[in-house]
Amino acid sequence: MLPKTVKRIVTTLVLTVAFCGVLWSTLAEGTEYYMHVDEVLAEPEAWYGKNLQVHGYVVAGSRLVKPDTLEYRFKVENNGSVIDAEYTGIVPDTFQDGSEVVISGQLDSHGFTVKPNGVMAKCPSKYEPKPTLDDVGAVE
User: Fold this and answer.
1) How far is the CA of 36 from the CAs of 56, 77, 107, 123, in angstroms?
2) Is the pTM of this model over 0.85?
3) Would you say 61 and 15 are in contact if contact means Cβ atoms under 8 Å apart?
4) In the chain, at which end, N or C, are there fewer CB atoms within 10 A of the end residue's CB?
5) How far apart are the C-alpha atoms of 102 and 121, rounded to whole Å?
6) If we measure between CA atoms, which residue out of 84, 88, 91, 90 comes closest to residue 112?
7) For 53-86, b where at least 16 C-beta lie within 10 A, e where not — what string?
8) What is the mean pLDDT of each run of 10 residues along the chain (140 residues)?
């Protein structure tokens, strides 16, 4: 009876360890870190090859598109730090100079490679209050 019980315990232990290993590796691969440009560029080598979501603003005049393709190169800035990005795909209509964006992809020594569907441009909020006469400095 003892060998059968030991066999079950060992089998259960092995299956539990295997399940935990698969779960851990799946979670590690699927993790995306949300950061700002300046945080990423403070220690860029630490983020090479990791899945990142990087928040910033499109630098005015930096958007370049290769003719007859959907290949884009642009720069994203936050707090004085600038990151070069490459993207192939359709960009949102709100993707303009100065627009707030979150790009998803991976960083390497050449810049940031944005994954497919990895450009999210923030829409201006409809719920921001309209300026009042006090805000614009109305003359009394």
Assistant:
1) 6, 9, 13, 18
2) no
3) no
4) C
5) 6
6) 84
7) ebbbbbbeeebeeeeeeeebebbbbbeeebbebe
8) 80 86 70 88 89 92 91 93 91 89 90 88 70 60
Residue type, 65: V
Tokens of 91: 């960009």
Transcribe the chain into DSSP letters: -HHHHHHHHHHHHHHHHHHHHHHHHHHHHH--EEEEHHHHHHSGGGGBTSEEEEEEEEPTT--EE-TTS-EEEEEEEETTEEEEEEEESPPPTT--TT-EEEEEEEEETTEEEEEEEEEEEPPPPTTSPPP-HHHHT---
